[in-house]
Specification:
Elements lengths: L1 E2 L5 E2 L10 E4 L5 E4 L3 E4 L10 E4 L2 H17 L3 H16 L2 H14 L6
Antiparallel strand pairs: 1-2, 2-3, 3-4, 5-6
This protein binds zinc ion.
The site of zinc ion has 8 residues, from α1.
Length: about 110
């Protein structure tokens, strides 16, 4: 923890996935706040610029899955292609590396400030 000008201390450990940022007030009270981040369908291995907003990777991943299913139901070719590419990754046994890379990407995204 490092002191700041306002007498508020913020944990200065790198933000990890699924962890909140703890703010300690002068009163000793701790506030947890969850940064909101925006990631696009494309950035999650999809095919369009549809944005998903959430504070955890799980949150945006589930929105992306739902979106992917909707696009697939409409037989949207770019999304079907993206899904078949995803299947290739699954079958190749490299899904964990893929997930790790996406989760790291998400973890490094800036808070959207809202
Ligand atoms: Zn999409």
């Amino acid at each position: 923890m490092s002191p700041s000008a306002n007498g508020i201390t913020v944990n200065d450990a790198p933000l990890r996935l699924g962890t909140s940022l703890h703010i300690y007030l002068e009163t000793g009270e701790a506030l947890d706040f969850w940064p909101m981040k925006i990631i696009s369908c494309l950035e999650l291995g999809g095919a369009c610029s549809q944005a998903f907003r959430g504070s955890s990777f799980e949150e945006v991943a589930s929105q992306s899955q739902q979106h992917g299913a909707e696009m697939a139901a409409m037989a949207d070719q770019p999304h079907l292609d993206a899904m078949s590419e995803m299947m290739t990754i699954l079958e190749s046994g490299h899904v964990q590396e893929w997930m790790d890379a996406k989760m790291e990407f998400f973890a490094l995204l800036p808070d959207d400030g809202q």
